[in-house]
Amino acid sequence: MKRYSIVIQPSNSVIEEVKQMKELLASRIGWYNSKNSLAHITVNEFEQGEIELVNIKSKLTKITTYLKSQEVQFTSFDVFPNGAFFLKPNVASRHYLKEIMTLVHQKFSYPTNIKSYEPHISIGRRIQPENIEIAKNLLSKNPNIRFPCDTIALRCFNEQRKQFDVIATFSFLGEESQDGVQGLLF
């Protein structure tokens, strides 16, 4: 069994911008959890045998066929009680991203270990309270990160690097649903 995750993949420029934020924070507080993780919005994590990978990719292709892309914006920083410091989407983007996440949860028929329902881009996880204050002061300017939300990525955990590697991407095609049901995402 291997560990996999499904994430919403931001643009390369956003991945680079978040990487610079993480490097700046590390220059002040040293290494921290998620420092080396590339920017993403976690949808879920699961374990599965490699033999099932073809079916998983087929399922994700089917899911993204009917998803419509939309620009999303992350306009502030926030903190979860567990010490996660993250980029927070604005209200409209949060609503859109939550709908995508919920749809993937509903349509992805494999057992999952983790399901995320709160869209965010982590800067760091399990950061000590005193370092959260440093992060807030260091990254105090409200960000204006925006990108077209148009891709889901399937990632596999790399045991050597202790990070997830993208193994496949699935673009939102925005096709009309065969059953005629139209909604925000279909």
What can you see in these coordinates?
This protein has 186 residues and is α+β, with helices and mostly antiparallel strands. It has one domain: Cyclic phosphodiesterase (Cyclic Phosphodiesterase, Chain: A). Helices cover 31% and strands 31% of the residues. The protein has helices at residues 12-29, 53-65, 91-107, 129-138, and strands at residues 2-8, 41-48, 70-79, 85-89, 114-115, 121-124, 145-149, 151-158, 163-171. The strands form two sheets. Strands 5-2-1-8-9 form a five-stranded antiparallel beta sheet. A four-stranded antiparallel beta sheet has the order 6-4-3-7. Helix 1 (12-29) packs across helix 4 (129-138). The two termini are 33 Å apart.
Features:
five-stranded antiparallel beta sheet, 4 helices, globular, Cyclic Phosphodiesterase, Chain: A, alpha+beta, 186 residues, four-stranded antiparallel beta sheet
Give a brief rundown of this model.
With 186 residues, this protein is an alpha+beta fold. The chain has 4 helices and 9 strands. The protein has one domain: Cyclic phosphodiesterase (Cyclic Phosphodiesterase, Chain: A, Alpha-Beta Complex).
